[in-house]
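ESCALATION

Customer reports they have been waiting on this structure for their group meeting. Please prioritize. Original submission:
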Amino acid sequence: MIYLYDGTFEGVLSGIYVMFHQKCPVDAARLMHKDRYQYGIFDEVVLVETQVEEAGKVASSIIETFGQEAFRRIGYAYLSEDEAFGTILFKCLKRAYKLGGMAFENLSDPDILALYKCFNAVARESHRMLGLLRFMELEKGVYYAPFDPTYDLLGLMVPHFTERLNDQVWVIHDIKRRKAAFYNGHEVHFGELDPLDTMSLSAREHDYQKMWQGYFEHIAIDARKNPKLHRQMMPKKYWKYLVEKLH
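Update from on-call: job pushed to the front of the queue and completed.
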């Protein structure tokens, strides 16, 4: 049995509600994003309708039974965009409700561990990106930060920068997913944004970039260079948007 949801977080929770309500066996059902599923001739398919009320019941049950941290892990794991996330979550919750309140700490269980791996991958990259995200001042005084994360991190970046840069107007742009967070100095709006063909940097930004690139070059000590460690701390896939690596 294949259950298909619309790709939203509420959609996957609605799918969980239906599957539990129908008492689906763990090994005989899958929950998948409808846009990523390839129909098989012998598959029995159920299209899950997203129901906010049902999704809310699932969320409340998870929080009441396992705590806020467990629900946070599920939210992060969803952002991993793993094609099997729905099924992973279903198996995890089936096992967790049998184990009881501390189930999400039982990483020796393969179903619990599978969800934790999705969570941990997102948590690790989001923490790294807080240090690697670079803002550039454009001509009109807007600070612009493009990035291309492996996972869907945009929403996780926003709270940090609304606190740290609360007196600035800025845009954080996820190039890969063509969406952005726009902060006007008071509130954040999310919307679609295609990659920019050109960027008009302010004169001050040009000067700052030259100074930062020069500083980055001059603090390097040849005898202590460790390219392997450097790539571990600052993976090469992120260099495209790092000012110090643009020249």
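Sent to customer with the following note: The longest helix spans residues 110-132.
Escalation resolved.
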